[in-house]
Design brief:
The protein is built from eight helices and 20 strands. The protein is α+β, with helices and mostly antiparallel strands. Strands 6-7-8-3-9-10 form a six-stranded mixed beta sheet, with helices on both faces. Helix 2 packs across helix 3, helix 2 packs parallel to helix 4 (136-148) and helix 3 crosses helix 4 (136-148). The two termini are 38 Å apart. The model has no long low-confidence stretch (mean pLDDT 92). Bound molecules: adenosine-5'-triphosphate (ATP). The site of adenosine-5'-triphosphate has 12 residues, from strand 2 and helix 1.
Length: 366
Amino acid sequence: MSTVNLSTITKQFGDVTAVRNLDLLIEEGEFFTFLGPSGCGKTTTLRMIAGFYYPTRGKVKFNDKDMTTVPPEKRNTGMVFQNYALFPHMTVFENVAFGLKVRKVNKTDMRKRVEDVLKKVRLDSFIQRQVSQLSGGQQQRVALARALVIEPDILLLDEPLSNLDARLRDEMRTEILRLQREYGITTIYVTHDQVEALTMSDRIAVFKDGECQQMGTPTDIYNEPVNDFVAEFIGETNLSPVTFKEKQEAEFIFHSEPLESPIRVKDSKQNIAAYDEGDELLISIRPEAIHVSDTALTDQHNVWTGEVSLVQFTGASVHTFIKINEETTIRATGLNQGPSTYFEEGTTVRVHMPEDQIRVIPRARE
Ligand code: ATP
């Protein structure tokens, strides 16, 4: 097991800066995810950890050992690629044993280690099967077994589930997590799928244009996004531009042009006092934090009247879109509590944004 320490890593390919000034410390045994849209530098970062690329500037350390320019085969990392990179004409045994052969492990030990790891990934009865005769999910398990059998210090997974259908992806998420916990291995996982990131990770780094926007636990990142990019990339949110007006007792007052009214925010864990009056910011509120009602909501702040423009039923929950004016539609999500609780399209409703559920955030840099 190993920690991974990246200090001020930059990677340039000609004119393209794929990763810029990245600092990251991944703890021993941690499940750490790089999350972000296509082209944001996740794979390049993973490849610098694996040794397939060397950084243009900065250092890669495992524990306290400088690995910056150590070649991949001397790093003791296990990697699972998006397309698995298995040898289709070889058997499951031959594929999994490959790394042990390269390391010149003797035949008896090799047999035992391959059998043990195949039991762990529940493929022991397929040991002599050709890889080309396996399903996608089974091939995924072979790729995992091949990475784990060398007893790596660090497991690197590059979008390992993207070729599987939704149900199998769900199953493999649990499977990967089970194996990771069993082996207690430091794991770095690359994905653009927020659900994978939220459900599997101890911590997540959210990337945009080669830079880390935010790093934290799934709950930190979901509940306290640092800017609009993170708020929109992870989960759904309602964003609106506002101008900071003033502080009034325990509340901060913002003016929203699109909502044509003041908005009150309670500073729960945010540092709004650091902003200056007149600052142009954004407010973000999650759809599940919004209350929708068809009765009048008196004596409350942050209440708007609108018309239900769309209702989307997803099974467990119901999304309601409420048009406040030409510019603004608010999205609210509630649990499905039976047909009598859904609104009809066209209904006039009141929308309430609780003061303590609103986050005030700056825009991400372009
Ligand atoms: P994806 O999810 O699509 O794999 P990513 O977040 O992993 O995307 P990277 O593959 O790390 O992104 O790419 C980051 C940027 O670096 C992109 O602009 C990409 O075009 C560029 N890039 C990556 N590898 C190379 C290379 N070998 N040569 C030139 N440019 C590259």
